[in-house]
Design a protein that fits this description.
single chain, 159 residues, alpha/beta, Helicase, Ruva Protein, domain 3, three-stranded antiparallel β-sheet, 48% helix, elongated, binds zinc ion
């Protein structure tokens, strides 16, 4: 997208307005011209080919503890991806959070703690997502076994 002066607009911010409207702000760095687009969440998604967090959603994310932040970011972006939207708003965060109400069977939880740290976060997200996709409310050992074979088969294969 180009400014009248011939320079490219730079994406500056994405603000949440009322009633699921968002406001995209662009700026021309050469002449200082601002361009704003008001649209709804879904249409705004057309402007981004990867997840774009609204200022408000980003603020909520920034307040999370550092070890939780990447997990929440991943979960919400995965959820947005399944919905085929790229604009991540606070509403979407809440929606994704509600969807993420997957509990862990005690045996599965115990087993999760034995998975090495860097893989554990990924495994947890993957398992909860798979459980959600199947409409399960709980991650079980059986599900872990299945996922392990499919995703982590090489890393944890046993004879
Ligand atoms: Zn300009």
């Amino acid at each position: 997208m180009q400014c009248a002066c011939g320079s490219d607009f730079r994406y500056e911010a994405l603000e949440e307005w009322e009633d699921l409207q968002v406001f995209l702000r662009y700026r021309c760095d050469r002449c200082g011209f601002h361009l704003g687009i008001e649209t709804d969440h879904r249409k705004a998604s057309m402007f981004f080919d990867r997840p774009a967090w609204t200022d408000e959603a980003q603020h909520r994310l920034d307040r999370l503890p550092p070890y939780v932040e990447p997990l929440v970011r991943q979960e919400v972006e995965d959820y947005a991806d399944r919905k085929r939207i790229t604009v991540v708003s606070t509403d979407l965060m809440t929606e994704a959070g509600n969807q993420g109400m997957v509990s862990w069977h005690p045996d599965a939880r115990r087993r999760l703690t034995r998975i090495p740290g860097p893989v554990r976060a990924m495994a947890r997200v993957e398992l909860e997502r798979t459980a959600q996709d199947r409409g399960l409310s709980e991650v079980t050992v059986a599900l872990m076994e299945e996922i392990k074979t499919r995703y982590f088969g090489l890393a944890t294969s046993r004879s």
